[in-house]
Amino acid sequence: MSTRLPTLAVVGATGAVGTVMLDILSTRENVWGEIRLVASPRSAGKLLTVRGEEVAVQALAPEVFDGVDVAMFDVPDEVSKEWAPVAAARGAVVVDNSGAFRMDDDVPLVVPEVNAEQVRNRPRGIISNPNCTTLSMIVAVGALHRAYGLTELVVSSYQAASGAGQQGIDTLYDQIAKVAADRTLGTRAGDVRAAVGELGPFPAPLALNVVPWAGSLKDDGWSSEELKVRNESRKILGLPDLRVSATCVRVPVVTTHSLAVHATFSTEVDADEARRLLASSPGVVVQDDPANAEFPTPADVVGTDPTWVGRIRRSLDDPRSLDLFLCGDNLRKGAALNTAQIAELLAAEFTAG
Ligand code: 2RA
């Protein structure tokens, strides 16, 4: 007896995350029948390669969801807000990578290594994928929480330009080209700003700089990105009262977000035990031998799937706290890969059922 493989739609197939998604769909085990590629009308007809075959992009319209079992959305919040319910009404389960539904009580926020069971709890037919900054740390933090019981997170992020999309990547490369030849830059206040010209999506120069800002301004000086780390960590871990303080910073890295994490638990912790525990956790790699310059950096982690963890230390002042440094590719696990993993859970459900 042959089983019909589910039909997948990839909405936003031409964007920065969509491009990584096509690569991921082409290299992971193939669990899909038809794959439909969908984008804005201006990309309609464009040919993209997925699973070694050229597929023509279709314009976003209600009918493209007819017969679709799972629809992945990698589009801006306002597009998801309008079109995810349309896809769900036409019978597709939506896996949405925007911020439109993440905090909706009727939409689960899923990281398969942490709360896979939530995939079935989807009254609106929509499942949300967390923000890339949360995703870059939560697999490792979730494993530590299961062992020790998390009570507080203090986090500083070092976020890559690609978190701001293709425009962020282009801006960083353009700025690097402008500053590369002048070895006097970075010695006088304002010289880098004058040299780079266009700031693109960033509020200050990114080349030769770090920028303590990502997202939009919210109450009391917090950024939307910092609130996402707090609210999403609480929801994914099922800890509505978790104490979380985040400072999100953009750094001149193309792709791969890093985070310095100070995590406090309800019991005393041991760094060697935490290292062993993390090393045996799915989706986590431990690289932690500073004597031999072994720790994760974005330049070495980019293009890989796991969360890389290093610099694991027990706090000198609190035996219940660990300090660690994490790196995760923000376009892979931070976006496309987690979406693909959620969709694969759905594919298994459809294929079994
Ligand atoms: C950023 N986390 O890095 C955002 C993208 N979703 O700007």
UniProtKB/TrEMBL annotation:
Catalytic reaction equation(s): L-aspartate 4-semialdehyde + phosphate + NADP(+) = 4-phospho-L-aspartate + NADPH + H(+)
Key words, A-Z: Amino-acid biosynthesis, Diaminopimelate biosynthesis, Lysine biosynthesis, Methionine biosynthesis, NADP, Oxidoreductase, Threonine biosynthesis
Binding locations of substrate: 159, 250
Positions that bind phosphate: 102
InterPro entries in the cross-refs: Asp_semialdehyde_DH, Asp_semialdehyde_DH_beta, NAD(P)-bd_dom_sf, Semialdehyde_DH_NAD-bd, Semialdhyde_DH_dimer_dom
Domain Semialdehyde dehydrogenase NAD-binding: 7-122
Highest taxon listed in the record's lineage: Bacteria
EC class (word): oxidoreductase
Active site, renumbered: 132 (acyl-thioester intermediate), 257 (proton acceptor)
GO molecular function, one term: protein dimerization activity
Pfam families to which the protein is assigned, alphabetical: Semialdhyde_dh (PF01118), Semialdhyde_dhC (PF02774)
Tagged with keyword NADP: yes
Keyword tRNA-binding: no
SUPFAM superfamilies found in the cross-reference section: Glyceraldehyde-3-phosphate dehydrogenase-like, C-terminal domain, NAD(P)-binding Rossmann-fold domains
EC number: 1.2.1.11
Metabolic or biological pathway: Amino-acid biosynthesis; L-lysine biosynthesis via DAP pathway; (S)-tetrahydrodipicolinate from L-aspartate: step 2/4; Amino-acid biosynthesis; L-threonine biosynthesis; L-threonine from L-aspartate: step 2/5; Amino-acid biosynthesis; L-methionine biosynthesis via de novo pathway; L-homoserine from L-aspartate: step 2/3
GO BP, one annotated term: isoleucine biosynthetic process
Annotated positions binding NADP(+): 14-17, 42-43, 162-163, 330
SMART domains recorded: Semialdhyde_dh
Known role: Catalyzes the NADPH-dependent formation of L-aspartate-semialdehyde (L-ASA) by the reductive dephosphorylation of L-aspartyl-4-phosphate.
Complexes and interactors: Homodimer.
Entry's family note: Belongs to the aspartate-semialdehyde dehydrogenase family.
Protein name in UniProt: Aspartate-semialdehyde dehydrogenase
Lineage summary: Bacteria, Bacillati, Actinomycetota, Actinomycetes, Streptosporangiales
Protein's gene: asd
